Amino acid sequence: LVIVHDAIGVNMIDTYVRKGLYPVDLPSGLGGEAAGIITAVGGDVAALEPGMRVAYVTPPPFDAYSEARVVDARWVVPLPAELDSATAAAVLLKGLTSWFLLHRSYRVAVGDWLLIYAAAGGVGSLLVQWAVQLGARVIGVVGSESKREIAAAHGCHHVLLASDDVVGRVRALTDGAGVAAVYDSVGRDTFMASLDCLAPHGVMVSYGNASGPVEPVAPLELMRRGSLFLTRPSLYDFINDRGLLETGARELFAMVLAGTLRVDINQRFALKDAADAHRALESRQTTGATVLEP
Q: Are strands 2-10 and 289-293 parallel, antiparallel or unpaired?
């Protein structure tokens, strides 16, 4: 397919690729998420045709930071008429990430205590809203007082600052029990504290590297804290089947259109200013979603 972009999603994974944390074959572009209009279709493509509004999220090779792109049809989903392109580009990768984190990495049950880092960020804000809808009790962690208000508005039952004694506060809020799962997108700086927040048999979901990659950890550390489980998932392993991609996108779009998930596009940059978008993201100056506009 050839897709002319209306809006391009900006995600932390883009910064990891740029810095070489996630190696890709060079030369390479950046960005794996965008929305736009199909202008040409290959001969073996069914169910997608020129003029359709679509969005996609792709694994490497990346090249979404562009005005138009050739995309493998297996990663492309049609957009509902009511969903604008900017919202689609802002929510598809982050929303599908929230979907698999809550339904696959750890299957959230009603009443579960969860700890969610970066609770005012792009993925975090969606993760909080969705977890609350599933009946979880959510403790969010943010980096500033202003972000505390945002996280609370998205449904966090309690919001901690990263500078707090997170382990102590979590233990107090859960009457000493700890949480069923931790969703940690920060990485190196928070990993061990996250383990210390878990209840016995709890699940540590390490899905980001904002502070750098996690150092190697001995499996005995999991045993000592109550026979914990550790997973380091990637979105693409959960949407590599076309049926799973369609299921996740359908559930996500339905929740957005119903107003159950609010998508806050709080930063918009021109495509030519993509470097400024990365600087803002890496310095933790952003909240909600960021998009580039060609």
A: antiparallel
> Which uninterrupted H or E stretch holds 239?
none
Could you list the mean pLDDT of each consecutive 10-residue stretch along the chain, which spans 294 residues? 97 92 89 97 91 95 95 96 97 97 97 97 95 98 94 97 97 98 97 98 95 94 98 95 95 96 96 97 90 96
The C-alpha atoms of residue 180 and residue 106 are separated, in whole angstroms, by 9
Count of other CB atoms within 10 angstroms of residue 144: 15
Nearest to 205 by CA among 194, 196, 216, 215: 194
Q: Which amino acid is at 143?
A: G
Q: Give the number of other CB atoms < 10 A from CB of residue 6.
A: 19
CB neighbourhood size of 17 (10 A): 21
State the Cα torsion 12-287-105-248 to the nearest 10°. Answer: -90
* Cβ-based neighbours of 30, under 8 Å, separated by 6 or more: 14, 17, 18, 62, 63, 64, 65, 274
Distance of alpha carbon 196 from alpha carbon 205, whole angstroms = 13
Q: Which of 64, 10, 16, 29 is nearest to 208 (CA)?
A: 16
* The model's pTM: 0.93
Task: Report the SS3 class of residue 185.
Answer: coil
Residues 29 and 69: their CA atoms lie apart, in Å, by: 11
* CA atoms of 162 and 175, how far apart (whole Å): 20
Q: What pLDDT does 210 receive?
A: 87
